[in-house]
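Changelog note: in this version the structure field was regenerated for every chain. One regenerated record is shown below for reference.
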Amino acid sequence: MTDIDFRLVPAPEMEVSDLTPPDAFTTGDKTELNHTVFATKDESILSGVWECAPCREVIESYPVHEMMTLISGSLTLTHKDGRAEVFTAGDTFFIAKSSYCIWEITQTLRKYYMITA
């Protein structure tokens, strides 16, 4: 990690991550990887690259504010009102802290992220 300006690259060296509950994965592939490029000392701001195999989670209250850009894969976000949005490579979007959503990765996803707690 660095605390100076940095360049996000789409395929950095990744480390195993465990943010996704094991029972959320929807296929036999349970791969989840992360590469944090920037973090404040208190980790209230994070930026990096994250990858995850297909999974589905009902998130009652999204834990952070997060802006992300998909590098590859596909994600369907379903809002509390039932409206579903599909995001694919090149799409950039934001999820506000405390938002309800159903997060469903339908094709292994890789994204750039910027998180604030």
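Spot check on this record: The chain has no helices and eight strands. Residues 66 and 95 are 5 Å apart (CA to CA).
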